[in-house]
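Teaching soon. Got one?

===
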Amino acid sequence: LDFFEVDSKKLNDMAFCKKMIVDACGEAKCQILNIMEHKFDPHGLTIACILSESHCTIHTWPESNYCALDIYGCGEADLKKGVDHFLSVLTPGNYNIRLIKRGDNA
């Protein structure tokens, strides 16, 4: 997921972004095993959630009003619900969504 024209204050707020990613994982019915986070100076952050189904990450560039998100899972996970949560919370002015199917031997 590439989100453009996002409020820079949201993208630089660790507590806000952490709650958002935890809630998105919950909406997607994913089980969080571990969370790692890092705040960059002077701005930007990265959060990585290790899931029993795989992973979910956010990397932000508040100075560009941009963030990159990944939500990857398997099994009973409903990843679209996680994507919808990110869209509703970050309200990007523009965005790109890429669906990548992995593990298919096509």
User: Anything to note?
Assistant: The mean pLDDT is 94. The first strand starts at residue 2 and ends at 4. The chain has three helices and six strands.
